[in-house]
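User: Predict the complex.
Assistant: Input components as received:
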Amino acid sequence: MVRSISSAKKVRTPASELFWRCCFTALLLCTCAIVLVPLFNLLALSLSEPSRVSEVRGLTVLPKGLSLVNYRVLMANPLFMRSILNSVYITLVGTALNLLVTSMAAFALTRPKLPFRRFFMVLIIIVMILEPALVTEYLVVKKIGLMNSLWAVILYKAVNVYYLIILMRYFEEIPPSLVEAAQVDGASNMTVLKNIVLPLAKPALATLGLFYGVFHWNEYFRASIYLTDPMKYPLQLILRQFVVLDDTASLIGSGTLFSYDEAARLSYSALQASTIVVAILPVLIVYPLILKYYARGVMEGGVKE
Amino acid sequence: MAALAKRKDWALLVLLAPALMYFLVYHLIPIAGMVMAFQDYRIVGKSPFVGLKHFKMLFASPAFVQVLVNTLIISFMKIVLFFPLPIAFALMLNEVRASVLRKFIQSTTYLPHFLSWVVIAGIWIAFLSPSGGGANQLRSIFGLPPRDYMTDKSAIRWVLFASETWRSLGWDSIIYLAALASINPSLYESADLDGAGTIQKMRFITLPELLPTMVTVFILNMGFFLNAGFDQIFNMMNDSVISVVDILDTYVYRIGLLNMQYSFSTAASLFKGLIGLVLILAAHQGSRKITGKGLW
């Protein structure tokens, strides 16, 4: 079986191998183009001069002229600006809460001294495999008075069981002697978690934080059923009304748009493109971090979702 | 000391409490509340039990049967037809040796996984637009008349398939890339000595080595067969195509929260939940038996 002879290591790459490599690379680069062209097309549309928007075709990737008027119009819209604030608030508070609650639970569940530990583990599996009906969840949220409150959206998926399990596996690998030494010194559970476990779990927390963060930023559905006041809507919901449902009145009805001289010449599709770009931007900003933490973790550990 | 080690630490429950509260409110109470599938739900007063009335209504409804068929077809496309694509992607990427190129391809194709379906729907609606979208610009290059894919019943399921592929192709290949990285290089070296070509090495070394990962992924995906992708369909459907893309989850939403037929919708959810439970448990057992790794 083992026939590897180091001296016989490939000195040259055969022509056929090179041929296939070129084919594969070309095909993969085509895939990249299919991902990128629609994105750059929207960026081009959003940045083009209003008078030249009609020149931007579906496969155009560079703006015709350069103008920020679409973004200025969006920024002048109170509903849009408010939705960005709401999204930022939901994302920051939600992610902080996610990390706090998930890490406290993961710590407790990985302690052998936890009472009813087996019972709680079964509970977690139940949560993982049984999905409550949408209607019953809705009625419970209504009953506890969270309707039209950002908290209904923030608390949804406060603990993602899959992430909880990933964090538990991570905590389990922390040497128990470190924890015991601190406990002999009289440290409380919270102190041990804060001063010993969490600092050691930083890469895992960063990964989960990024995933929770992207989840909150992208969430729109719970917001659509739990929030009734448009001034509480997150950006994704405004985006859905404006772009997916093509409901221009919701965004423009206030009349602020038409206070602009250029407004008469603005194209809805360019405005819609700008809204999409704004919604993608934060994801692009944290994307290098995601690649750094998660992609590496996956390559090493084989964790999926 | 041994006695001390065995003693339960009740203070740990304090740390667990917030998570338990969340599970209680967002999972356990709503799950218990699903008993209303057997009742006629009333907002005030007691809801009377009506047995299987809502389930009988459900199965007698042609709309529900169509929804079930749509769910199965769309899931089949997304799970079975899509299945080989990330594998092929990983195999091809594995042959790309230049690390800069490799990183570029990976970073580009993983990105759509992090975009919301609202954003992706917006991108695809623009791309497929009959007036000036990229797809129709391509068609015009080949002299074809413009086509409105989003409102075309015969095309929309393929739009779902294509946009799902656009979003997940790169990301879903990660698990295979990880498996590829762990293949013993000496296997390839000996194949090189035997004069095996690229395709032969793929067929006789790489694919068999990937088989356990493929089986795991496939089986675990089968556990979620009734999902079919609510967020995608919710954002990509419209009145012209609803009859062919309406799935269980969109149906449950519409009859439950829009038409406020609470008990009827919950019955549909319970039906989906029970079948889903069987599928997930089967997937878990199957995967554990074959590969030793289950869902938990």
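Chain B has a mean pLDDT of 93.
Let me know if you want any component modeled separately.
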